[in-house]
Amino acid sequence: MSINRALTFALILLSLLVVVTVINFNNHKDIGSEYDISKDELLMINICIIPEIIRSYEKVRNIYSIRNTFFFRYIQNTCNTCLDIQLNEILTLQEEIGKDYIWIFPAYLEDRNSRIQLSAELAKFNYRNFPADSLFIPTFNGEQRSYYAWINGDGEIGMVFIPDRNNVHNTRQYFLEVKNMLKTLSGN
Q1: Euclidean distance between CA atoms 28 and 169, whole angstroms
Q2: Are 160 and 53 in contact (CB under 8 A)?
Q3: What is the CATH number of the domain that holds 182?
Q4: Are 21 and 42 contacting, i.e. CB atoms less than 8 angstroms apart?
Q5: pLDDT value at 43 more than 60
Q6: Which of 75, 79, 104, 181 is deepest in the core (most CB within 10 A)?
Q7: pTM as predicted
Q8: What is the pLDDT of residues 140-156, one digit of tens each?
Q9: Of all residues in the chain, what percent are helix, strand and coil, respectively (each to 5)?
Q10: Among 71, 78, 86, which residue's Cα sits nearest to residue 145?
Q11: Are the C-beta atoms of 104 and 122 separated by less than 8 Å?
């Protein structure tokens, strides 16, 4: 990817992030309350996090070489209720679209217990355990956050979305966009 193309992509992504964040602030006035952070701090965190996710993926993309894939990234100590909700949303999407374009990328320890747990939790999904240090997982206020993203046909990451438990509407909108894109790819 050329530098100009990468910069253009980053600027477009940053602009979209700012627009989504402004809309989010207007729709949900106390967005930072759960994390005890201000709106300005949340905006700065998002502006810093998304490019960091993209940079970390660029470092590993040739190793994993996954294309046209929607993925969900989370860590081992994600709250069980949150994880169940997110996996159920993905399962609903998968039932509509099919399994081929959807992957789960957890970050668990590489040990026997983790393999057993993952095979039980993610039996209905395509999944691959990526070490936490190979693909960035954002943290703020001491909490690591899961996220969704899209890897296009050229192997480039985009459409990074960090769900906010206080604003389920944005998550639903994001899933609608992903569903439309996946329907186009699958020919449904």
Answers
A1: 10
A2: yes
A3: 3.40.30
A4: yes
A5: no
A6: 104
A7: 0.70
A8: 677 788 889 888 888 88
A9: 55, 15, 30
A10: 78
A11: yes
